[in-house]
Amino acid sequence: MTGSRSLLPTFVEGLAVHLAGHGFTREGGTRIFRRYGPTGDALIMEVQSSDHSTRTTKAFYLNVALVLAPAWESWRRRTGLPDSALPSSSHGIWRSRIGHPGLSGGDQWRIRSTTAATVAREVWRRVDETVPQLLPMLERDQLFVDAARIFAARSWQVRAWLLAVHGPSAELDRMLARCSPKEARMIRDHLADSRDGSSGEPPRGRPRPDAGRDDRARPAADAAPAVRGWTAEEDLVPLLRRISGYIAYPYDDLDEAALTGALDDQPADGGFCYPLMGIPPLTVRLARPPGGTRISVEVDGPLDPVLTDRIGTLLTER
Q1: CA distance 285 to 48
Q2: Calpha distance 105→46 (Å, rounded)
Q3: Which end of the chain lies in a sparser environment, N or C, as judged by fewer CB atoms within 10 Å?
Q4: 257, 299, 241: which is closest to 275 by C-alpha?
Q5: Which run of H or of E encompasses 3?
Q6: 118 in helix, strand or coil?
Q7: Is the predicted pLDDT of residue 235 greater than 50, yes or no?
Q8: Dihedral, CA atoms, 306, 318, 225, 145, nearest 10 degrees?
Q9: How far apart are CA 228 and CA 179, in angstroms?
Q10: Which letter does DSSP use for residue 265 in this model?
Q11: pLDDT over 90 for what percent of the chain?
Q12: How far apart, in Å, are the Cα atoms of 67 and each of 75, 130, 138, 190, 269?
């Protein structure tokens, strides 16, 4: 990398070779690299030039994004793009950047003829660290479970798109109520444009919605066993917050206020039930033996194996 004009193109060619080892491809001579999942969702890496470039120094960003196939198809149809059009990082439902503060002052990279090889090695290293963390996003079952952790406030939007590929449902309606008006409109347009509302198995961690049935109901024969265990009284609030995080339920001070004193006035049958209306909705049954300091916990609902294991690790058996 000696000529200043060839600095960035040469770097991009090297990046293409490195990303190919991680399963990314590119079309033509673009600076966009894509890896597709089994359902057509795409992880994207993209080299974006920066205005801070000079005659001898080339500055750029390494953008990363997750593009959900149904969201991209909806956008492509709305904007009249041809079937052959491919998404870029700007179409991502999640976007970020790979940076190295020690070399480039944040998320911006800079290369000169004398530093290009060193910077390239650092970029390859950061890519090798980052890609394994991103690949689980291409597994929709896991993405549905981990949406709250990965996307925080936007988890409702991601979950709504994942539900939309299976057609209308009461559960989807609840999700759309939490999305932005623009996103909810796009999802409804996607439903209207889809010829068949069912495109395979729904994400695990939720029951398949049946017409005319509340999604919270579940036949006894299909119900997973409740998770049971114990927790210390001082650990109850952190426990409920963790469980709520797993199901994207916005547990807050109002929930704590509702539970204040509940175990002191628990019913005669020795239990107090509290709903966590996330995805999936769960019911937590709490009981404290007279004079005891530990609380028995039973979590019931449409539990999948991953959620069952996660909740189980939070509880003690005795």
Answers
A1: 52
A2: 19
A3: C
A4: 299
A5: none
A6: helix
A7: yes
A8: -20
A9: 34
A10: T
A11: 28
A12: 11, 17, 10, 15, 50
For 53, half-sphere exposure in the C-beta direction (CA atoms, 13 angstrom radius) is 15
Q: What is the largest CA-CA distance in the chain?
A: 82
Question: What value does the mean pLDDT take over residues 163-190?
Answer: 82
- pLDDT of 16 > 70? The answer is yes
Q: Give the lowest-confidence range in 69-83, 122-136, 141-155.
A: 141-155
Q: Tell me phi and psi for residue 282, to 5 degrees.
A: -125, 155
Lowest-confidence range among 8-12, 103-107, 202-206? 202-206
Helix, strand, coil percent content, the chain, rounded in steps of 5: 40, 20, 40
Rounded Cα distance between 69 and 209, Å, is 21
Which residue do the tokens 């049935």 mark? 213
Q: Are 155 and 171 in contact (CB under 8 A)?
A: no
H/E segment holding residue 309: helix 305-312
User: What's this model's pTM, rounded to 2 decimal places?
Assistant: 0.61
User: 76-99, pLDDT tens digit by residue?
Assistant: 887 788 889 999 888 888 888 898
Residues 47-55 have a mean pLDDT of: 86
Structure tokens at 5: 């004009």
Separation of first and last alpha carbons in the chain? 65
Are 145 and 155 in contact by the 8 Å Cβ rule? The answer is: no
Q: Token pair of 177, please?
A: 């109520």
pLDDT for 214 beyond 70: no
